[in-house]
């Protein structure tokens, strides 16, 4: 089953539950409906939206994340279920008890995989990737040299030009990246919840105001997939968020990437085996180079 990312971006819409469907109406007239079984995440990105409590309860019981976005297409709120897994309490205990050395090793693996994937993207667009590949080989436990940031500085200049600066409050490329990361974040958040893990207990991220620190740890190797798609959109002449760009970016979790088991969708990689590896002694990269 291909779970779809559903975005409601028009103003003054009402969302409710109707016989196993998410139904959207405006001024009493039905605009559309989607079977709940087909929904992987719901993104609320319009003004004046309202929704029924029955719908929110049903989405929570199905572990479907609801993401509320601000004007810059960046999440300002997430709704996640209290009980997402039968062994949730046990797994959260293990998660909280995880040692600092183990967390540092996990972060090393995530950084290595992210930088390798960034290098692969550069290879695909014809830009030199040797420096990033070399950096990926020098990541140590906990990344004390901040190889992740060193790689990012080289990567963004090669991907979008020397004048580009990654700033989530800016428009253009940055707003497209924001939206793509929101889609990816929703897939990872659902995987975290389904695995019975707590999204706030991190591997590396420490921001005390961020309730989704684990999600932001685990999303890192998948960000280059979004970057690559935004690069293609920009080359095609898409410079701002519009309906077509949102539609293309919403398909990011269905993109195929190469893993040791063969080609898999991003959603399958995050939702099944990949995140449960957090509870094992050895954490393999979340994804092989895409």
Written account of the structure:
Helices cover about 45% and strands about 15% of the residues. The chain has about 290 residues and is an alpha/beta fold. The strands form 3 sheets. The protein has a 4-stranded mixed β-sheet. The chain has a 4-stranded mixed β-sheet with strand order 4-3-2-6. It has a two-stranded antiparallel ribbon with strand order 9-10. Helix 3 packs parallel to helix 5, helix 3 runs parallel beside helix 8 and helix 4 (about 130-135) packs antiparallel against helix 5 (about 145-160).
How are the SSEs placed, and which strands pair?
Layout: E1 4-8, E2 14-18, E3 21-26, E4 29-35, E5 39-44, E6 50-51, H1 53-61, E7 66-69, E8 75-79, H2 88-97, H3 100-124, H4 130-136, H5 147-160, H6 173-194, H7 213-218, H8 223-235, H9 243-249, E9 256-259, E10 262-265, H10 266-276
Helix pairs in contact: 3-4, 3-5, 3-8, 4-5, 6-8, 6-10
Features:
alpha/beta, 4-stranded mixed beta sheet, 290 residues
**How many individual helices?**
10
Compute the number of strand runs: 10
Q: List the secondary-structure elements in sequence, H or E.
A: EEEEEEHEEHHHHHHHHEEH
Straight-line distance between termini: 22 Å
Radius of gyration: 19 Å
How much strand?
15-25%
**Helix-residue proportion:** 40-55%
Which whole number gives the mean pLDDT?
82
Q: Strand order across the biggest sheet?
A: 1-5-7-8
Could you list the spans in which at least 5 consecutive residues all have pLDDT below 50? 267-290
Largest sheet: 4 strands, mixed
**Secondary structural class:** alpha/beta
Overall 3D form: globular
